[in-house]
Specification:
Elements (H helix, E strand, L loop, with lengths): L2 H14 L9 E3 L6 E3 H6 L15 H8 L5 E3 L18 H12 L5 E8 L2 E8 L10 H17 L3 E4 L10 H5 L1 H14 L4 E5 L5 H4 L8 E4 L10 H8 L10 H6 L5 E2 L5 H12 L6 H4 L3 H4 L1 H8 L1
Parallel strand pairs: 5-6, 6-7, 7-8, 8-9
Antiparallel strand pairs: 1-2, 3-4, 4-5
Helix pairs in contact: 5-7
């Protein structure tokens, strides 16, 4: 035991009234290096005020921001087998699950809810990237399918916000089976004549991109989001060539026809409301649309995609 470190220093700190300061009070912008106070960042929807860089947004905060007045009915998390393969790498899978649940206060990577966006009823589904990289496992796949079934039962659209590294390796083939299962759920919603909108966030990669993330009636994306199947570094090492600047970003994909619109986070709820009212043939509140540049070109993008 170090007597000075463990006894003398805490005693002096308590006498002087010093408190330990958490390390995450200031967030560094990845683009400019600017330090932003965490409360200012949260109030600005996790967008760096000066640079406009879109940081990762917690799933529950995104749902609250999406729905009117932050009010929605949370869908229950389906029960599935835990650690079906008894997987272990440098750590047991059950331990990774426990750590992620403690960190995020979620059962798995998917959170879903039913609410209204500018009066339009819809089901919202969000990936939590901080839960094992938003990876798609059995629980996540089942939660997505239940959300589609809820949308069909409620006869309302579904909007999904993917943010994932892809399939969950700790569940092997059982994880990969969620790709066709969720694809079938997408088809069920479309057969019911209900819109399916995908809002691509940073990052959307791997098996998630190869399934439900690219099957929407309309694809929106946040600025600067990385959207791909295989990462840029992997591709460059495979083909031994340098890829174009901005490759696999949302802006690059929009230029090449894989994304319909790049929409800033602050404009997403209003943009979704207008898109869905067009697709559902509902009357729109013109007063709410005035001055919104993100919505100005929307009818063209919507008509081209649907």
């Amino acid at each position: 035991m170090n007597w000075i470190t463990n006894y003398v220093r805490p005693k002096i700190n308590s006498m002087l009234g010093r408190r330990e300061v958490p390390e995450n009070l200031w967030i560094k912008c990845p683009e400019t290096g600017e330090m932003v106070f965490h409360r200012d960042l949260e109030e600005n929807k996790w967008v760096i005020p000066a640079s406009g860089f879109h940081m990762k947004m917690p799933a529950k905060a995104r749902l609250k921001d999406l729905f009117d007045d932050g009010v929605y009915e949370a869908l229950p998390q389906p029960k599935v087998a835990q650690d079906p393969l008894k997987f272990r790498d440098s750590k047991k899978y059950v331990d990774r699950l426990r750590d992620s649940r403690a960190k995020t206060d979620m059962e798995d990577t998917i959170v879903a809810g039913v609410g209204r966006v500018q009066g339009m009823k819809l089901v919202g589904v969000v990936h939590e990237f901080n839960f094992m990289g938003g990876s798609l496992g059995m629980a996540a796949g089942e939660a997505i399918i239940k959300a589609f079934e809820k949308a069909i039962a409620e006869k309302c659209p579904l909007v999904i916000f993917p943010a994932s590294g892809g399939a969950r390796m700790q569940e092997g083939i059982l994880s990969l089976m969620q790709l066709p299962r969720t694809t079938v759920a997408v088809q069920m919603l479309k057969e019911a004549g209900l819109p399916y909108i995908v809002v691509l966030t940073n990052p959307t990669t791997g098996g998630v991109t190869a399934s439900y993330a690219m099957l929407g009636d309309l694809h929106l994306a946040e600025p600067g989001a990385e959207i791909c199947f295989a990462g840029k570094r992997v591709i460059e090492q495979t083909i031994r060539e340098k890829l174009p600047e901005g490759f696999q970003t949302s802006e690059y994909l929009m230029e090449h026809g894989m994304v319909d619109m790049v929409v800033k986070r602050h404009d997403i709820p209003a943009t979704l409301a207008r898109v869905l009212k067009i697709l559902m043939k509902k009357p729109m509140d013109v007063a709410k649309l005035s001055g919104n540049t993100a919505l100005a070109a929307l009818p063209i993008a919507a008509s081209a995609s649907v």
